[in-house]
Amino acid sequence: MAAYTVRRIVLESYFILLIAAVFSLLAGFLLQENLERILRLAMLIALVPPINDMGGNIGCIVGARLATALHLGIIGSGRGRKHLRRNIWGSMISGVLSFGAAGAVLILLGPLGFPGWVAPVFFLAGIFQTIIATLVSVWLAFVAFREGLDPDNVVAPIITSVCDVSGVVSLLLAAKMLGL
Prior knowledge:
Blueprint: H1 6-33, H2 35-40, H3 43-72, H4 80-108, H5 118-146, H6 151-177
Helix pairs in contact: 1-6, 3-4, 3-5, 3-6, 4-5, 5-6
């Protein structure tokens, strides 16, 4: 992989940031298209920022860890599969625990006016978001590295934007699966 230069960082990041902007716009369009349903379940709007943030964080963590392992040649070594498997499982467990804890907080906030359906919708959507964030981050890290790009310039901006879209979709899907 070529040395880090300002030129390289800008060239790699510019195109990636444009792609990320398109994904973020798509999230806005999804919200607009589902506005009637969202207004019926107005609390869904309050859940969009935390689910997007938490999913993006999980994806960025696993992406950064894999980028480091790829740069160091750990994944290309004999212990690479074990390292990859640990990172994937660690991210999945972190997601379940994080979204579970957030769901518990939402239950505790019930007396303040949070409807009873909020916690289960958020938790289920969080499971979807964790799976998507982890799988997309792993895929992006490997594709970027294989193509000679620095995964650190690719994974974080793309995964945060992917999670903007998948967070909205996950919330709507979870609400539908729970009969709302």
